[in-house]
Automatic annotation (TrEMBL):
This is 2-amino-4-hydroxy-6-hydroxymethyldihydropteridine diphosphokinase. Residues 6-131 form the 7,8-dihydro-6-hydroxymethylpterin-pyrophosphokinase domain. GO terms for molecular function: 2-amino-4-hydroxy-6-hydroxymethyldihydropteridine diphosphokinase activity; ATP binding; kinase activity. The keyword Kinase applies. Its EC number is 2.7.6.3. GO terms for biological process: folic acid biosynthetic process; tetrahydrofolate biosynthetic process. It is an enzyme of class 2 (transferase). Pfam families: HPPK. It comes from Atelocyanobacterium thalassa (isolate ALOHA). It catalyses: 6-hydroxymethyl-7,8-dihydropterin + ATP = (7,8-dihydropterin-6-yl)methyl diphosphate + AMP + H(+). Keywords: ATP-binding, Folate biosynthesis, Kinase, Nucleotide-binding, Transferase. Pathway: Cofactor biosynthesis; tetrahydrofolate biosynthesis; 2-amino-4-hydroxy-6-hydroxymethyl-7,8-dihydropteridine diphosphate from 7,8-dihydroneopterin triphosphate: step 4/4.
Amino acid sequence: MAQYAIALGSNLGNSYTILNKVIFFLSRYPDIGLASSSPFYQTFPIGPKQPSYYNCCITINSSINPKKLLEILFNIEKKFGRIRNKRWDARTLDLDILLCNELIINTSSLQIPHPQMIKRKFVLLPLCTIASTWKHPITKKTVKEHLQAISYENIM
Ligand SMILES: Nc1ncnc2c1ncn2[C@@H]1O[C@H](COP(=O)(O)OP(=O)(O)OP(=O)(O)O)[C@@H](O)[C@H]1O
Ligand SMILES: Nc1nc2c(c(=O)[nH]1)N=C(CO)CN2
């Protein structure tokens, strides 16, 4: 059984409702147990000009392996209306695997920890509300320490 941290984001459609529905959907998914879920934060977009986001994080327990979980999350993004065009395009749903136990994976299609997570306040702030002491397996710093190191502000 592994513990995963997952980041959710949405900035197209009724984002608040979409995130709620996705968390409910995941909580009922076979072999996935929802452990915790953060508050939702409205955040200014990082990157190209586009609508503001709702972001949150969850932790789950699952016997599903990381590669299979990525495939499942990809299909859930599709089910909730994600159309993939360019990188960083506005989207109804983005699901990123942030952490899996103390595991490090570095393949072309899957990197864990998520390489961008420690730079993103819209990830670290919600994650810190549910997993502040989780140690990043590469930097060895906790989620809280990474959050404290970020100076920019994009939370509304
Ligand atoms: N830990 C991970 N979680 C989710 N996707 C990942 C992960 N590691 C690698 N990927 C890969 O990243 C690819 C691009 O993902 P996506 O289209 O969601 O990027 P993005 O959200 O636009 O940008 P970013 O990657 O900066 O969040 C996916 O096809 C997936 O194979
Ligand atoms: N505030 C915010 N900005 C973003 C986000 C996101 O989830 N929230 N996701 C991006 C691509 O993954 C790019 N920029």
